[in-house]
Design brief:
2 copies of one chain form a homodimer. Chain A is built from 15 helices and 17 strands. With 417 residues, chain A is an alpha/beta fold. At the A-B interface, α1, α2, β2, β10 and α11 of A face α2, β2, α8, β10 and β11 of B.
């Protein structure tokens, strides 16, 4: 179906916040076989909201409206929509009860303001029975309109869980079958992947998308058609060909993360990990520990920002620091071995480099990062040079450290097979 | 003046590319005193481009149109605009000469296609005499329309260098003055802040916005009006009242981050920091080290995920772990003191808690987090209970740890004043 996305919020039109929710919605809806003909961003102005919703409704088959649904006085979406669609604001006692039940920790004086969330345009339905935040839909003149909160993580969750599924079963003209998969890759540039996969493109009903999500590149495969069996067969064939073509550059499928995949491999190997980080400053550890259950395989880490800590905690010989410097493969190896011993882990991973903006030299320019990996069978090291600003170098280095460990775990897995 | 931004490109409406150019334009134009009433994103469809430009032109005082100006067959903006505004495409030989002069490195077979860049709607002017890329403007029915390339770095350069300056000297009807400030707060809920600041709202030309950016809440103040002195006076008065009302809940203004503010306070105090993290798993260290120059005040940290590391590295007495558990104020205090000693820092900050999804108990439910702060004058501790999923608890705990340190540094700053 053809849809439009309307994002509401002064913080967007004043350029204070980058609008990532419309992008996320467009990408998911596109992948699900819909076409987004326009994305409109406007401020918290009731007249403007009313006019924009009516105009979009005249052109599109469905609307996604995000933002302006909260409890504060600048949240005006529901009010504006009630008036534009002549659907008077209606109080839904069930919604208020559910919200209150799910907001037990909210102090009493603030719970009063929650009542605003239970006033919706007449005919609206909440998107989830377990109401924890704003989010509803209504069908106006045969067209579904979804209202989602502007807070990115809430919006994304609701869109993925409720909007996409509702649209999929919507009684449109001719039901379309859609199969989709996302391949998360690391280590090859977008253009290189494009060159390899271009041969699969072009056929009607097959869409391959390339999305750099620094430092990863994501590839999406979408197969659409009318006949379910045909779609399934083409999808399976292409899925296999993409996997064969990209091989171990693919680190995960769909929603899995690199750190999640590393955790899976460590768990499968019954092995534990210790981290010694200099230039990434805890970013690798922070990624590892975002994963639920990581305490089973993650021993701990040292953020060895100063040389004193490298020597004292990680037992890096002072000669290495004086002869080769802290950013050297020698130092990375010593850090990896040191943290492996210190934390009694099966694997010790070390990162030391120059993230900038200062500290580069001709010999070791900004973006130079050395990696160490200590295992039961020895210690490896490698030097990379990343481009970008401080945070980009840190992100690239953290991703590379995790990916190296993944590749090593895959290799050693094969050896023991 | 009141403007609209139109971004053109299938890569945007299909969610393949995040639209950062409209955001950049809105933020610069807003800062220059203009108001952006709508940002519209559409695909490379000539009819849709024509219609959107005409509609926006009917509402706004000026337009910024980005994308679709290149040499390939899917670049259709100029053609669509020529037709919509009845300004026939016109060949500008001077432009072609300038482009060719500035594109010496382009291979011969591609140089032919450059000619497309010299066909502009009648009455158009290039934005820069040294033409190196697409980019032009025209005045239609008294309103300036700027056409900029969609490539972010080219667009940003042209916008900053040519559009903002041209608009600044534009003879509009009545120039509008705008003053704006963003207050970043932590420790009070959005609705609570709203309740306090509501008394300042409602007056014409004053807008207060509330944006939860978990775990922070951002508050924006915008004052607009015709007379510069009046706007300035009202802005200064409200700014002071908001600062007085929110006090130390405000941790930073405009673009500054919490970790940046903490770094500033540590630098001012000539003090150094060491971190011991359990449930935040390196997130606090990672935030601290995102800040350029943090090596001057950050000694390092320990991600003490296992109890063994808490005992071995941080010298947490085993009795504390057996009697009180790892998630206890006793443990947080010992960790803070331990890491302060270990890393020879002036401040030792410790975080230990239950981020979930497992590990909660009746006595210590999920989201229970203990904080320790060791200083030259002693050691403090505190227990908080956060709600949300694992990553939200981690984010809330990391923010709280930094904010506690900020408040302590402010307090000790006062003592030495």
């Amino acid at each position: 179906m053809k849809g439009e996305i309307i994002a509401i919020g002064d913080e967007l039109t004043s350029g204070r916040i980058l609008n990532t929710t419309s992008y996320f919605a467009a990408s998911r809806l596109f992948a699900a076989g819909h076409e987004i003909s326009a994305m409109v961003t406007i401020g918290d102005d009731p007249d403007h909201i009313s006019r924009t919703v009516l105009e979009s409704l005249g052109r599109a088959d469905f609307l996604i409206v995000t933002g302006g649904l909260g409890v504060t006085s600048d949240d005006l979406t529901t009010e504006a929509v009630s008036s534009a669609l002549a659907r008077p604001p209606t109080f839904y006692p069930d919604i208020l009860r559910a919200i209150k039940r799910n907001s037990r920790d909210v102090p009493d004086d603030l719970r009063l303001s929650l009542e605003k969330l239970a006033w919706l345009p007449a005919g609206a339905h909440v998107l989830r029975s377990e109401v924890t935040s704003a989010g509803y839909f209504l069908v106006h003149e045969g067209k579904p309109i979804f209202f989602l909160p502007g807070v990115p993580h809430e919006m994304k969750e609701l869109l993925a869980e409720t909007v996409i599924t509702r649209l999929a079963v919507w009684e449109g003209e001719e039901p379309r079958q859609v199969r989709q998969r996302l391949y998360r890759t690391m280590g090859m540039a977008e253009a290189g992947i494009n060159a390899i996969l271009a041969v699969f493109e072009g056929e009607e009903g097959i869409r391959i998308g390339y999305y750099p999500v620094f430092p990863e590149v994501h590839v999406s495969l979408t197969v659409t058609g009318v006949d379910a069996a045909t779609v399934e067969a083409r999808f399976n064939e292409l899925d296999q060909r993409i996997r064969d073509s990209l091989g171990r550059y693919i680190f995960a499928i769909d929603d899995q993360t690199l750190e999640g995949r590393v955790g899976e491999l460590l768990t499968a190997a019954g092995a534990t990990l210790a981290l010694a980080e200099s230039c990434t400053g805890g970013l690798v550890a922070s990624k590892i520990t975002r994963v639920a259950g990581s305490s089973a395989y993650f021993r701990g880490g040292v953020v060895a920002y100063s040389n004193a800590i490298k020597v004292k905690l990680l037992a890096v010989p002072p000669e290495i620091l004086s002869d080769h410097g802290a950013v050297s493969e020698e130092c990375a190896r010593a850090m990896a071995v040191g943290v492996k011993e210190l934390a009694a882990g099966d694997y010790g991973v070390a990162v030391t480099g120059i993230a900038g903006p200062d500290g580069g030299s001709d010999e070791k320019p900004l973006g130079t990062v050395c990696f160490g990996l200590a295992t039961a069978v020895g210690v490896e090291s490698e030097t990379m040079r990343f481009t970008g600003n401080r945070q980009q170098v840190q992100a690239a280095a953290a991703g590379h450290a995790l990916n190296r460990l993944r590749l090593f775990l895959l290799k050693s897995d094969k050896v023991t097979e």
